[in-house]
Each structure stands twice: as structure tokens, then as C-alpha cells.
Sequence to fold (408 residues):
Amino acid sequence: MTIIKSQLNIEENRDILKSHSDFYSYQFQLKNRIRGNDLYKYFELTDDEKKGISSTIRLNVGTTPYYLLLADPYNPKCPIRRLIIPTEDEAYLAPEESPDPLHEERLSVVKGLTRMYDDRVLLFSNQECSVYCRHCMRGRKVSFNEERMSKEDLDLCFEYLKNNPEITDVVISGGDPLNLSDARIEYILQNLEEIDSIKICRIGTRIPVTLPFRITNNLLKIIEKFNNDNLSIFCNTHFNHVKECTKDSKEAILKLLKVGVSVGNQCVVLKGINDSGEDMLALHRKLLEMRVRAYYMYDPEVIPGSRGFRTPLAKGLEIIEFMRGKIAGMGIPQFVNDLPGGGGKVTLSPNWYMGFHKKSRNHIFRSALRGTFHLSPEPVDSNYDSIYKEISDKDWEYYSKNSRDVFQ
Ligand code: SF4
Fold:
């Protein structure tokens, strides 16, 4: 096999990164993040990728050495590579795309605080991340320094929370909140813990995926201190592909679990990256082994330059249909669409409920496991008939003939 010079350089450059004595220090990883213009040293870039890097209309390009080394240097279809390196698709704004499809800015009550629900808010704590994921739905803000949240900005958010005691649950997101300094994380958690009405704090972070070494003893001590009777801290992380589930990421998860933080996963269905039942099943099986429960699987948002990632709605349904019966329920995410226009999330399921037959008072279901039809009687004293989707006598005849259940 002939190895060309550029490949030799790529291998050498990767070896240099890997063999650095501080490789496992998160400070080294952050200081040595690789930007768009340097990606050619570690990847054999295609013309499509070169165009993407120079003309993306989305967030900046950058990755930790750790995450970069998980990506294939030669195969442009590698799922991790696709999450790091933009392609030319990212250079175009389609008419239906919007930088803020969920209306997070319109629903902002003070800078950095979005209130879509009565009892919950989203706190945008930080514009920085370890890796700038190409599919990021908050790409309008993330990676741009002018979006930085100052201490004064955060104080105004805390003030708002104090004055609105019906809010009990704060999602800290960004950017990645765990990219903040320990001192700033402590400041945020302490303030939330001191507000009597705040009971739940959910940290949205990709750190276990992109920079697991950031879960240091000091950070854990801070989290443990404020994960107490006043405040319950949860972590929602964001693995998209089984290739991201490494020994290092598992260690980071286990450390969070040890300080009482429950860890769930949110992923996005992404074209050519994880948009098959097999990919999602492999990911969620691995996540369960890592003791991470499935939470959400998002239908991709209609954000600028997203045509390379977006999948038909049916893909998500197909994936859930495929997974049901092959993994425990706690490994199956809820497929959600966060509605454009700030309508909040709705969950979607394959069509397993065929309907209700009034005369026989039976519901008919299709088994996700076997494809067979099954009957379940409504309680005799129920008066909810009118809200069920009604099944005609003709359909009833068909389903009941093909049903697995014994019925009269
Ligand atoms: S880590 Fe999260 S916020 Fe940051 S770029 Fe990735 S998806 Fe966006």
C-alpha cells in the first residue's frame, strides 16, 4: 500500500496530539482546541468540507483534540467528523430556515432567560463550548463572544427568578455551562440553591461527550455541595452516536452518578449520522451500559444551513418503531418535535393505537414487537367513548379476525 505524504503528516500530527503529556488535562484540551483553518492537519479534507469551513453561515468551527481523535481522518462519512467539519450545505440559507425557530429570543424575559413554560425557564449561561457541533440549534449565539453572559447579567436572571416563585425548574444551557470556570459554576448553583422556590436544576451539557476530563474532583465537589435537600441537580447530556461512547466518557458519567446526579441523554436525528434504527439502537444500548437513561430524540430544527442534516419526520417514527421490543423502555427516547414558533415540545409515536370499537367496547392496538393486532376492553362504567378514534364495523371485523386475543 502506498502511503502519500499528506497521510503521513496527518498520522504524525495526530500522534503528536495524542502523546502530549497533558492530553488528559481539560485545560490542555481547551487551550489546544483545533479551529477550522487547522483541520487540514488532521483530516484529508474533501472539497465539500473545504468550502464548508470557509463559507459556513453557522457557528464557528472548533473541536477539542480528544473529540477530534475519535473522528476518521480519511472517511468524510464518519459520523463524528460530520459533527465537527461543516460541508458546503452550511453555506446556504433556505427560505424556510430561521436562526431562532423556537422563538427563544422573543420569549426572553431578561437577557439570557427564556420562559416558554410557567414553571420552567432556560438559562443561557455561556456562549462557549468545547466542540462547536454543526447541528447546534443555538448556533445564532453559541461561539460568539458578544453573547457572553456577565456576572451582572446572571444577577438580573436570579432577580427575576426570585420575583417569580412559580418557577421551580431551571435548565442551565448555553453554550455549555460546564465550559464555565469552577468559580462561575459555583456562583450559579449557589444562587439557584438560595432561591427557595427553585427545586430542580438541569444542566444541559455535552462535556461527557466532547471533553470528559472536565469532570474533575473539584467540579464534582461543587455539584455535590449544591445537590441537596433544597435543590436536585440533573444532567442531560447529548450523545448522538455510539462512536462517542468511550471509556473516558463512561468514567465521566459514573463520577456524576456518584455525586447523586441522574444522567439522561438527548440526541437529534441527523441525516447520514444516526438516522437509522440500527444506529439509534446501538447508541442507546451502549448508553444504558454507561447507566445513562434515554430522554429525548429530537426532530432536527429548521435552522440556517441545516439542509445537510434534516431528516423527514417519518425517520424518527421509523426509528422508534424499530427500537420498541429490542431494548428496555428506559433505553427508548421520546421522539419530540420542539414546535417552531415557540409552541413547546410534542411527543410523537408510531401508529400503534388503531382505535376504539364502540359496540364491542374494545380498543385495538398493533403490536410494535410482532405487528399483530391486540384487543383491550374499556372499563364498563367508562364514559370517555367520545374522545377515542372510532373504528368502523368493517375494520373491526378485519382486526378482530386477525387479533391474537380471545374475544367474544
Ligand atoms: S455543545 Fe451543545 S450548545 Fe455547544 S455547539 Fe454543541 S450542541 Fe450547541
